Amino acid sequence: MPDLDRDIQDTLASPSGASAQLPLDASAAAAVKLGRSIVVTSGKGGVGKTTTTANLGTALADAGRSVVVVDADVGLRNLDVVLGLENRVSKHLLDVIEEKCSLDEALVRDRVRRNLLLMPAAQNREKDDVPEEKMAQLVRQLQERFEFVLIDCPAGIEQGFRNAVVGAQEAIIVTTPEVSAVRDADRVIGLLPRAIELKLVVNRVRPAMVKKGTMMSVADVNAILRLDLLGVVPDEREIIIATNRGTPVIDIEGSETGAAFRRIARRMLGEEVPIPSFEDKRNFVTRVMSTLGLGRS
Amino acid sequence: MPGRAFVITSGKGGVGKTTTTANVGCALASLGKQVVLMDADIGLRNLDLVLGLEKRIVFDIVDVAEGRCQPRQALIRDKRLEGLYLLPASQTKNKESISEDQMRDVVRLLVAEFDVVLIDCPAGIEHGFRNAIAGADEAIVVTTPEVSAIRDADRILGMLGQRRARLIINRVRLEMVKTGDMLAVEDVAEILGREVLGVVPDDEEIIDTTNRGEPIVLDPSRRLSKTYIAIARRLTGEDVPLPSFDDDGFFSRLRRLMIGTRSHA
Amino acid sequence: MIDFLAKFFRREEASSSRARERLRLVLMSDRVSLAPDIFDAMKGEMLDVLRRYLEIDERGMDVHFENAERQFALMANIPVREVKTHEAIALARDVANRLQTADVLESQPTVATPPRRRRRRRARAAANAPLAAQPSDEAGALQAIDDAGAPPPSG
Known about the structure:
The complex is a heterotrimer. Helices cover 43% and strands 15% of the residues of chain A. By secondary structure, chain A is of the alpha/beta class. Chain C folds into 2 domains: 2-83, no CATH class; 86-149.
């Protein structure tokens, strides 16, 4: 098993509020090296939580870490389909919690990355069926086995949201540069426990529209939300093609979106990676052309 | 003759329920109907924002349900369109603050006085969803031509009971359908097995109009405006053929035939 | 070689066709898991039919849906204790036919027969059926119907 990096050791040194609630002997907790539990949430649906969870999980696995991605969207699961693993799902999270099967029987290994596993959600149950303490315990069990536990949160702020959040020590807030999404993100930030470390990912950015002034800029968004910016992800048709195929977008050659997710993963591992300004490519060409005296200035 | 109540739902978040509610509502009002748009997303309200009415909210649906005010006091009249009203959701309460019975009662009061009530449903299948469908006679299921959205729409269709449910297929990108990179309208309709109420092309102008709180229907020169008016017409019972996206006349005629014979399940 | 070619052509496949195929399979799986009682009823009806021809070991049987890579299938592994004799099969099918006919007659709105008389008519019809291992009395005939049609006593 690869060495846990600096960030994980820091987490262990200062246990967050979440882990303090769980029934674990103090000395036992110190002895066990725990992975990071991170919930990916937003409030607004459709901003890219599942895509983000799948792609960050894949990128972290490519960086050599052991990763489990947890689908907390009971009844409307999609993490399996985004990863192309829907045919391999048999048992799920609720089966484990209700002790109908073991953790290993429910976990689905990725086709390509051996160190990436999926904990599927139940499709035919309700979110109210999952007791919060059990969910927290399950996340804790996963933290004992994996360096990264990424929890894909459902849309909304109901029980599904509360369950997804209960085991998490960190949160990635995903939003798009649209008023409804930013408003919902703001609401969600207010509902998260104070102990959780928050980071922001701004998804579906369309640089051309930002330039025209028909879309908010990342700066506009973060002026309202005021979080540490983890990354900016551009919008691309490749995302649609990727979900059609059931492959993560980071595997599509030349995808800017994929490249952005890879940069975010590197930042999560402690690397200093600058956020590119996403200048519209056309602008660069136009500038070059005008320098050469061609085209409109 | 009491009005009709439709719930606009999807399962998957972010496919355009609220935008659809706002624009179809405006379209119906512009056709002369008396319309109430009801935001059932308690705690995460957005219909007010999309309509540009967020600064005029005094009372909300929870106030009505708990009897703190009359329904009429909570309704916000849109000053741009005759006959269009908004019943906002509460932002600070949560979805357990209102029961299915209370929702049914409110809707019953509204259909007694208005032609159409459109209920904007929250994402998901939890309390919020159950509340939103409680008062509705019919459903409009919004989906995009993407795997996750279609899967969730199928799940929702299974939860609507005996209600009539029709589809609005949103964010269709014709160029991608042609290159085989996006599912076609016929594919979606066949997979879900339901009648198509409308097809809305992907258009970046929508983002701008929602940011500014000006539903696109208010500008008749925009192409999406015509799309929503056509949907509104179909809702009132008019037979408006779905547009053909093909240049080839034969295929567009064939497509219209196929969709026409696929009556609602 | 064939594997490689298959993979090559699969990559060239339009992503929308791939999406269509995946949706088809995943929706089958979702729909089955979301209506467990309906599919339990289906399995029950399936077993009723099987029991007319076979004596099955219900405790050892396994009937389930399976979601493989490109196929969704109903898998049934049903241990068979006995294949029923030709006579027993004939009897069972006969009884099934008669009950079906009686049901059809019963559902005719024009003939308003009181319930008790209908039951007696059905019993008489069954008793008059040409049975191989034929008991001579009506009660015995009813017992034969029961034996053929009823599920085996659970252990």
